Amino acid sequence: xxxxxxxxxxxxxxxxxxxxxxxxxxxxxxxxxxxxxxxxxxxxxxxxxxxxxxxxxxxxxxxxxxxxxxxxxxxxxxxxxxxxxxxxxxxxxxxxxxxxxxxxxxxxxxxxxxxxxxxxxxxxxxxxxxxxxxxxxxxxxxxxxxxxxxxxxxxxxxxxxxxxxxxxxxxxxxxxxxxxxxxxxxxxxxxxxxxxxxxxxxxxxxxxxxxxxxxxxxxxxxxxxxxxxxxxxxxxxxxxxxxxxxxxxxxxxxxxxxxxxxxxxxxxxxxxxxxxxxxxxxxxxxxxxxxxxxxxxxxxxxxxxxxxxxxxxxxxxxxxxxxxx
Length: 325
Known about the structure:
Blueprint: H1 2-16, H2 20-26, H3 29-44, H4 51-80, H5 84-94, H6 100-117, H7 119-126, H8 139-186, H9 198-207, H10 209-222, H11 231-241, H12 251-261, E1 265-266, E2 269-271, E3 274-276, E4 280-281, H13 291-324
Antiparallel strand pairs: 1-4, 2-3
Protein name: Cobalamin biosynthesis protein CobD
Family: Belongs to the CobD/CbiB family.
Pathway: Cofactor biosynthesis; adenosylcobalamin biosynthesis
């Protein structure tokens, strides 16, 4: 039943996204969770505490976030029951946890901005989806940043929440989203958050392991439907480069995307004026990425999305058949 929920929530979000009027009216689950994380960060993460104490407080904060989110969503699922109307409501709620349409729209905006108005506009557009300093990026770097963001966020913004929806229902998907949001807000190696965000960062790494590998596989398989993409090179690049990335997960989809498109992604990047070293994904590939490459990457991601929908559809049918056996 959970994979049926995941399949239909993916389908609804792919077609409709999360309406902007709804954001203005009631917000978004990520905003609600983020508000809770920000409050706990302010209350529990105090500069006068030593490193160990702040680490413990970070664990307490993460447990408070997860217990709250799971209690609310599991309780809501139980109250709704098992009717068809209840399932429709759960699908609509679950569809807010993935970001297929918004991710595509934001990445496409970068290519459109570069084509229509040039580098300055492209920098503004890419600043909406990456944390690096846009003023330090030339046009190829803007394009690489957009493609890298597409690859990484496909994994942790689409595949992972869908997978945890399939495994744990609405509560599983919401718990994943809460952890991922906590990692994005406090899981940094900064003076303020290195200790307090340790638990969130480590848990996020762990729960993204299966999704990052699945996303890489989906990108490889999607190459068979994109004429100018290479499944062979994508596969080789994943096995050669993915494990070299500074993140245990981001390297997998980024390496698959790099190999598929013949690009060299990742490598050293500047965040808040600081050069962060990293290995190249697709070493030896082309660094001069263009807006056309962004569109090629989006085409590959669309086919990967279709393949994921097909996979979850098959799992949903298998689950229904097993339940009736």
